[in-house]
Amino acid sequence: MNKGGLMYLGKGKFPPVKFFVSVIYSNPEDLQPATSAIRESMGDIGSESEPFPFDFTDYYASEMGSPLFRVFLPLARMGSADGIVPIKKTCLELETRFSLGNRRRVNLDPGYIDVYKLVLVSEKYMGHKIYLGEGICADMVLLLGKKKVTPFRWTFPDFKSGRYDEYILELRRTYLSKLKEAGFVPDD
Q1: Is residue 7 within 8 Å of residue 184, measured between CB atoms?
Q2: What share of the chain is helix, strand, coil (3-state, %, to 5)?
Q3: Model confidence over 83-97: pLDDT tens digits?
Q4: pLDDT at 11
Q5: CB neighbours (10 Å) of residue 188?
Q6: Is the pLDDT of residue 7 over 80?
Q7: Which residues of 63-82 are buried (b: 16+ CB within 10 A; e: fewer)?
């Protein structure tokens, strides 16, 4: 049902979301083992993004080296939004497994898209984040529209730059197509 231009399914009913894992890395040789471990623990991966330069901050450089890159790995499966918490827990375990000493070789940032937004999850709490439980917070990073991605003032600079917009919009189109196949008819 369309209610005021928004998808409305009824009280307590929510469409499944499209999960992804974003991988930040320096050494390209670290990406393949991380991708394989994600596939092994979370299932098939869809059409991954090209490697994007991750150069809006040097936050990870002392730990991981530079230059840094970000790749998006969309999971083939969809699920309930609260399924992101165990995905984040698995990502934390994988980061530890691939670390050398106290230094991560990959930073795994899971998130999801739904009809209207892109959400990342984190162990870091800030005023705009929503606590989900088990030490994990949700961070709504982008609003998504048919042809437009809109950041918030708190959105990370790399997401705010528009660098990922084309990939994210294509991921959203694929997701909306899957929703329609599953019987959900989102208002796009």
Answers
A1: yes
A2: 30, 30, 40
A3: 999 999 999 999 999
A4: 66
A5: 14
A6: no
A7: ebeeebbbbbbbbeebeebe
Tell me: cis bond preceding 28? Omega within 30 of 0 counts: no
- Provide the β-strand partners of residue 152: none
Distance of CA 184 to the CA centre of its chain: 22
What would the 3-class secondary structure string for 154-182 be? CCCHHHHCCCCHHHHHHHHHHHHHHHHHC
The pLDDT of residue 127: 84
Which whole number is the average pLDDT over 148-160?
96
Read off the tokens for 157: 């600079």
In this prediction, residue 14 carries a pLDDT of 83
Burial string for 157-187 (b: 16+ CB within 10 Å, else e) reads ebbbeebbbebbbebbeebbebbeeeebebe
- The DSSP call for residue 132 is E
Tokens of 26: 């320096």
Instruction: Give me the domains of the chain, ranges plus CATH numbers.
Output: 15-181 (3.30.70.1150)
Both tokens assigned to 98: 């691939």
Tell how far CA 52 is from the center of its chain: 14
| Residues 141-152: tens digit of each pLDDT | 999 998 999 999
